């Protein structure tokens, strides 16, 4: 018999692995520790779980005014279900989807990956539970499949202008790649970011706590570039399960002619390819033009928008959805 229930604490996610909720952790954004960091920012968790005698599944969510959304913020590259593969996990997800009708009229899940079938799996679970589901791309993810290449081999395939920039400017800065957390270097990163063209950090304390934890676990790759002793560019990467994740990068506009960001990015690529031997580099979400210079493939990220037709609040958005389709 399947039991479905809710929790307002992310602590219950710690026990999922013991109940068979999937094998391993596909990404940093699937771990209980990540959701704990999100909860500490003020987000109120709604952890929807289902279990039977053999395994368990969960959706890490939050809710407001009858609308349910993923427990995530802009640092999250992806959001997906936490469930074992196969028919057993599918049954648990369907039970969760059916139970969620008691908590809200609309569930909007994003950015859900498609390459691991998460978007299809969640769509199927909610449709089987009676929701009206619309699926559409909401973002893109730039990636580099390394395909066994060395950094030198990868670098030969980069655009000529990028390679020329590195050749001309590399000696103008000194770069350092740390595999542990360093408070002084992190302070340099925060100062650079504050003075850069980037928008203000949403939750800087959360990002620092994440970097500290990743450093303690040996997964952090913290890079800094200095010119005449002044930190002018900094980046935060992590490496896990043969994947390098590019979380944050910034450089000082006042030192833009040095192209320190290019030199530092190249150094980190070289480290994760030649030292960490990753299979994939993930540049997160967003279609910024500079990402295409470094990456080779693009993957979609999806929005899975679910409306319960039995609830009156769903009727206006369902009508709009139907009209939009009719005018397409």
Which features would summarize this protein structure in a list?
about 325 residues; alpha+beta; Aminopeptidase; 2 domains; 12 strands; Acyl_CoA_acyltransferase
Notes on the structure:
With 328 residues, the protein is an alpha+beta fold. The chain has 2 domains: 3-139 and 301-327, Aminopeptidase (3-Layer(aba) Sandwich); 147-278, Gcn5-related N-acetyltransferase (GNAT) (Aminopeptidase), CATH 3.40.630. 33% of the residues lie in helices and 29% in strands. It is built from 10 helices and 12 strands. The protein has helices spanning 32-40, 87-99, 118-128, 151-156, 160-169, 183-195, 204-216, 260-275, 291-294, 315-327; strands spanning 3-7, 46-51, 56-64, 67-70, 106-113, 132-145, 174-178, 220-227, 230-240, 243-251, 280-285, 297-307. The protein has a 12-stranded mixed β-sheet, sandwiched between helices. Strand 4 (67-70), helix 2 (87-99) and strand 5 form a beta-alpha-beta unit. Helix 2 packs across helix 3 and helix 5 crosses helix 8 (260-275). The N and C termini lie far apart (44 Å). 39% of the residues are buried. The mean pLDDT is 93.
């Amino acid at each position: 018999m399947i039991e479905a229930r809710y929790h307002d604490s992310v602590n219950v996610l710690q026990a999922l692995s013991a109940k068979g909720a999937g094998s391993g952790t596909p990404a940093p954004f699937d771990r209980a520790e990540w959701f704990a960091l999100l909860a500490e920012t003020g987000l109120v968790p709604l952890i929807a779980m289902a279990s039977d005698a053999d395994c368990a599944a969960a959706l890490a969510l939050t809710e407001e005014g009858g609308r349910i959304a993923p427990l995530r913020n802009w640092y999250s590259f992806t959001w997906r279900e936490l469930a074992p593969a196969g028919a057993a996990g599918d049954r648990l997800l369907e039970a969760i989807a059916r139970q969620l009708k008691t908590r809200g009229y609309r569930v909007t899940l994003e950015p859900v990956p498609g390459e691991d079938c998460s978007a299809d799996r969640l769509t199927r679970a909610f449709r089987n539970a009676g929701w009206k589901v619309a699926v559409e791309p909401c973002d893109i993810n730039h990636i580099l499949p390394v395909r066994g290449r060395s950094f030198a081999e990868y670098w030969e395939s980069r655009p000529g202008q990028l390679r020329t920039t590195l050749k001309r400017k590399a000696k103008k800065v000194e770069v350092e790649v740390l595999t542990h957390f360093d408070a002084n270097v992190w302070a340099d990163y925060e100062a650079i970011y504050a003075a850069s063209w980037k928008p203000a950090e949403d939750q800087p304390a959360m990002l620092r706590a994440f970097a500290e934890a990743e450093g303690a676990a040996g997964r952090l790759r913290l890079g800094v570039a200095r010119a005449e002793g002044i930190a002018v560019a900094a980046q935060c990467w992590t490496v896990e399960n043969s994947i390098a994740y590019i979380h944050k990068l910034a450089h000082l506009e006042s030192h833009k002619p040095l192209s320190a960001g290019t030199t530092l990015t190249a150094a980190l690529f070289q480290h994760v390819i030649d030292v960490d031997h990753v299979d994939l580099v993930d540049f997160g979400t967003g279609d910024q033009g500079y990402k295409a210079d470094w990456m080779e493939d693009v993957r979609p990220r999806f929005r899975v928008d679910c409306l319960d037709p039995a609830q009156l609040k769903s009727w206006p958005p369902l009508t709009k959805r139907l009209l939009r389709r009719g005018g397409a």
